[in-house]
């Protein structure tokens, strides 16, 4: 399983990592973005993610394809959650396997940075005080 | 012409709906945004948004056709 996807179900990191296996792999780099209990000085108790799924899928896949053409890698997998997430849950997972570590680190960094900057997904923070807010940085 | 709109995040909250079909004489994406911003109280300046028509990113000058699906995309916050 290679590429970008949007998931309404919890992310199974172990299963995704198995999808990075290939005979030429000497390095595997995985990034997990998780729901933390604070942001901008406010206590957060949950997050909701919303996506424009059709375009998010296409743009995420475009990013994976760009990384593949820029770095000598074996496999690239990235999954972003949507829906309601509790503290500690994985919101986004990116994993890259390659022959050598430099390409794996570089491609993983590229994918997560570009996904955060470009893919039409939005985060709503639910605060301990009871209010909530969409983040539009 | 009739346009299909999808709204996300703060624009969905402001419009009070996730989608609607509107009848409008707006010839392009920018004119349509100005019309809908006035109707729904959208506060984003156009330069803060990206736009998509029929599932693909495009620009504010995009000339609209009958039954186009138009989405104004507020700044993203995935990850």
Topology:
The complex is a heterodimer of chains A (137) and B (79).
Chain A: E1 3-7, H1 13-18, E2 27-34, E3 38-39, E4 42-51, H2 53-70, E5 73-81, E6 83-86, E7 90-98, H3 101-118, E8 121-127, E9 132-134
Parallel strand pairs in A: 1-5
Antiparallel strand pairs in A: 2-7, 3-4, 4-6, 4-8, 5-7, 8-9
Helix pairs in contact in A: 2-3
Chain B: E1 2-6, H1 9-15, E2 19-23, H2 29-40, E3 50-53, E4 56-58, E5 69-73
**How many domains make up the 3D coordinates of chain B?**
1
Strand content of chain B: 25-35%
Low-confidence stretches of chain B: none
State the helix count of chain A.
3
CATH superfamily descriptor of chain A:
Molybdopterin biosynthesis MoaE subunit
Helical proportion of chain A? Answer: 25-40%
Poorly predicted regions of chain A = none
Q: What's the CATH C level of chain A?
A: Alpha Beta
* CATH architecture label of chain B: Roll
How does this structure look, described?
The complex is a heterodimer of chains A (137) and B (79). Helix content of chain A is 31%, strand content 42%. With 137 residues, chain A is of the alpha+beta class. Chain A has one domain (3-131): Aldehyde Oxidoreductase, domain 3 (Alpha-Beta Complex), CATH 3.90.1170.40. Chain A is elongated, with a radius of gyration of 15 Å. Chain B is α+β, with helices and mostly antiparallel strands. Chain B has helices at 9-15, 29-40, and strands at 2-6, 19-23, 50-53, 56-58, 69-73. A 5-stranded mixed sheet of chain B has the order 2-1-5-3-4, with no helix packed on it. Chains A and B meet through strand 4, helix 2, helix 3 and strand 8 of A and helix 1 of B.
């Amino acid at each position: 399983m290679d590429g970008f996807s949007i998931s309404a179900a919890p992310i199974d990191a172990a299963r995704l990592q198995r999808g990075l296996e290939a005979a030429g792999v000497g390095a595997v780099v995985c990034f997990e973005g998780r729901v933390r209990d604070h942001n901008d000085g406010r206590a957060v108790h949950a997050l909701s993610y919303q996506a424009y799924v059709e375009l998010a899928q296409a743009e995420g896949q475009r990013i994976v394809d760009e990384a593949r053409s820029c770095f000598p890698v074996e496999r690239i997998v990235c999954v972003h959650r949507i829906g309601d997430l509790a503290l500690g849950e994985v919101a986004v997972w990116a994993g890259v396997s390659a022959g050598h570590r430099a390409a794996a680190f570089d491609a993983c960094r590229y994918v997560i940075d570009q996904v955060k900057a470009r893919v039409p997904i939005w985060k709503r923070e639910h605060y301990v005080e009871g209010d909530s807010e969409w983040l539009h940085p | 012409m009739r346009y299909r709109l999808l709204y996300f995040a703060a624009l969905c909250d402001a419009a009070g709906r996730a989608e609607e079909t509107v009848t409008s004489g707006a010839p392009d994406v920018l004119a349509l945004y100005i019309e809908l911003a006035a109707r729904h109280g959208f506060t984003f300046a156009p330069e803060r948004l990206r736009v998509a028509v029929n599932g693909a990113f495009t620009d504010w000058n995009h000339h609209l056709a009958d039954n186009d699906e138009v989405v104004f995309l507020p700044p993203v916050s995935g990850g």
